[in-house]
Fold this sequence. Notes:
This protein is α/β, with parallel strands linked by helices. 22% of the residues lie in helices and 33% in strands. The protein contains 10 helices and 21 strands. Helix 6 (201-207) links the parallel strand 12 (189-194) and strand 13 (211-216). The longest helix is centred in the C-terminal third of the chain and has 14 residues, at 368-381.
Amino acid sequence: MTTSTRGAAKTPAVLVLEDGRIFRGRAYGAVGETFGEAVFSTGMTGYQETLTDPSYHRQVVVMTAPHVGNTGVNDEDPESARIWVSGYVVRDPARVSSNWRAQRSLDEELERQGVVGISGIDTRALTRHLRERGAMRVGIFSGEAWSGVRDEALLAKVQEQPQMKGANLSAEVATKETYVVPAIGTKKFTVAAVDLGIKGMTPRRMAERGIEVHVLPATATVEDIYAVNPDGVFFSNGPGDPATADGPVAVMRAVLERKTPLFGICFGNQILGRALGFGTYKLKYGHRGINQPVQDRTTGKVEVTAHNHGFAVDAPLDRISDTPFGRAEVSHVCLNDDVVEGLQLLDQPAFSVQYHPEAAAGPHDAAYLFDRFVSLMEAERA
């Protein structure tokens, strides 16, 4: 529940973690209450893309960069039609937006979209707490309705909220109707993209390579996919626990049976992992930001990459695995903690990565993955 107020910057606010840790600050954006999973993002730039990434649905994002909002907000950079984060936590919000592209301030945009936030707290202490204790449920409370409420009552409300583990959220953020992103220039291929929480830049990156992208709802069937006569199939990023995604897993297995070139990103990587018979698990605090080091084990190259995931695939790093669809191997690995960051089949054209190669806010080290997808479709056509 939110209410708007222009005096938000002077309104007291409190952040309550499910383990009882409390931080007090000032309201930022809308005033009211909000709940979600507390996670931290290490990106120093790209906050507009972060806010509008559907993968952040039901999450309260803590920015580790101390100063946020200095470039304001514009209407060109969002990754979707709305802000998806449940709440926003910053230490030192910019008082003035100073970018020639800015159309309004960040706090004005948060207020306009009813996103409750908090500022003026020690985000370094909060981040260290989440890194040591793990991502957890959180509530942010501000405004007169909460000014006299005891901390114990606020904590009880936080502990009533649902966990992220077991959450099935992709259908809540995905498109309800199929739409088409036309190829830029000469059309070379058609791709059916299953929207599990797709970011706007992803079909654009494919369109730049001559691909006409048909974006389908998360509930798309195999018949829906092949009705567009695709040269390739794509499964997008998205929120929630991959252990709940039985429908998309079954659809992907049907695609693999037909040996159609396949590419998955983030949630799509976890779907491929499950389709191949691997398990998934929840990371302690996840990977979020635009400065995560990943090694492409097929080339040895190290990339700095954009991440947003709290779950990962449990696949062996030290050997090739036999699956119902042939041999598979871990193609990419995070250099910080050895988490699986990519999979590929060796006997048919299918691969995925856990991170975000479209990287609208940068970096662009992983853009070659879209070219790799094109190469698979070219080889299949040949």
